């Protein structure tokens, strides 16, 4: 018999990590009175809130550094401040990563569905591990139908499967000038070039402006597939793209590069009833995340 361990952060460039203990009780049914008192005193609001932030590590793009919060930070959160406390995990230094929040909600809902359908096990002091990509330079970070794609290896404006690169009218990273030309900021020294990618799954979306990425041997240029003129691009593209992904409309966000895993199973007990404490915690956490997303 052996345990196989997995490094959940292995595929991330700048992983943002948060550990959240789930459930209304962090002590098992056989805990002594002393143990119960000890656990309750650590976070008296556990039963009411249903979860506890044990720690987080968040990458800030602007400073290229991590901000870390320990268990004392989570225990300081109240009913009134828990929403702001959780939202801090999804803030990259100058904007809220709503795509990561939306993807996290979807993954928690899948875990919730499993718990609502099983009556064999009850979990105590178990956690959810959240990981999302904090860097805009990680290849393959999906934001709904919009993808951060590497310019390198993309043949003549096409991605794998024949998907063309498009500019979504709802995303305002590029500003139009008086003569109709388009300008954006791209660094000459960037080794990787990222483009907005939306799958052309429907021919009905003719109102959207398609942009094909042409080969950029001489200069970094975006060339429109319509009548838009070419414009030389300079500066740094990363801050511009960050703004796009931070303010992307919620309805087009789906599956950012996010992992939500159940961890810590030291206190799991057989049961013939639904794990109401864990379900309560999951539902309350989802509610908090949706409130952050809506606001």
From TrEMBL:
GO cellular component: cytoplasm; nucleus
Highest taxon listed in the record's lineage: Eukaryota
EC number: 2.7.-.-
Alphabetically ordered keywords of this record: ATP-binding, Kinase, Nucleotide-binding, Transferase
Gene Ontology terms for molecular function: ATP binding; inositol tetrakisphosphate kinase activity; inositol-1,4,5-trisphosphate 3-kinase activity
Entry keyword annotation includes S-adenosyl-L-methionine: no
Top EC category: transferase
One Pfam entry name: IPK
Catalytic activity annotation: 1D-myo-inositol 1,4,5-trisphosphate + 2 ATP = 1D-myo-inositol 1,3,4,5,6-pentakisphosphate + 2 ADP + 2 H(+); 1D-myo-inositol 1,3,4,6-tetrakisphosphate + ATP = 1D-myo-inositol 1,3,4,5,6-pentakisphosphate + ADP + H(+)
An annotated GO BP: inositol phosphate biosynthetic process
Similarity annotation: Belongs to the inositol phosphokinase (IPK) family.
PANTHER family recorded: INOSITOL POLYPHOSPHATE KINASE, INOSITOL POLYPHOSPHATE MULTIKINASE
Name of this protein: Kinase
Source taxonomy: Eukaryota, Metazoa, Chordata, Craniata, Vertebrata
């Amino acid at each position: 018999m052996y345990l196989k361990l997995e490094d959940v952060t292995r595929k991330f460039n700048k992983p943002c990590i948060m550990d959240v203990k789930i459930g209304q009780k962090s002590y098992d049914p056989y805990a002594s009175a002393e143990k119960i008192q000890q656990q309750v005193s650590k976070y008296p609001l556990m039963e009411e809130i249903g979860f506890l932030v044990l720690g987080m590590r968040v990458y800030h793009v602007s400073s290229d550094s991590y901000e870390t919060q320990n268990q004392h930070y989570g225990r300081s959160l109240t009913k009134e401040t828990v929403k702001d406390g959780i939202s801090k995990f999804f803030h990259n230094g100058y904007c809220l990563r709503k795509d990561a929040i939306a993807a996290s909600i979807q993954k928690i809902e899948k875990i919730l569905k499993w718990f609502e359908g099983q009556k064999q096990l009850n979990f105590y002091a178990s956690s959810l591990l959240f990981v999302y990509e904090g860097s805009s330079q990680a290849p393959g970070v999906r934001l709904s139908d919009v993808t951060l794609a590497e310019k390198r290896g993309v043949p003549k404006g096409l991605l794998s499967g024949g998907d063309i690169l498009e500019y979504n009218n709802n995303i305002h990273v590029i500003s139009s000038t008086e003569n109709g030309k388009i300008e954006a900021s791209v660094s000459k020294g960037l080794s990787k070039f990222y483009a907005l990618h939306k799958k052309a799954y429907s021919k009905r979306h003719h109102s959207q402006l398609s942009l094909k990425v042409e080969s950029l041997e001489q200069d970094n240029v975006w060339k429109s597939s319509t009548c838009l003129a070419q414009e030389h691009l300079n500066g740094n593209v990363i801050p511009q793209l960050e703004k796009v992904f931070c303010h992307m409309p919620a309805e087009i966000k789906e599956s950012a590069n996010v992992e939500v895993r159940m961890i810590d199973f030291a206190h799991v007990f057989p049961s013939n009833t639904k794990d109401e404490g864990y379900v309560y915690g999951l539902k309350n956490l989802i509610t908090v995340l949706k409130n952050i997303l809506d606001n």
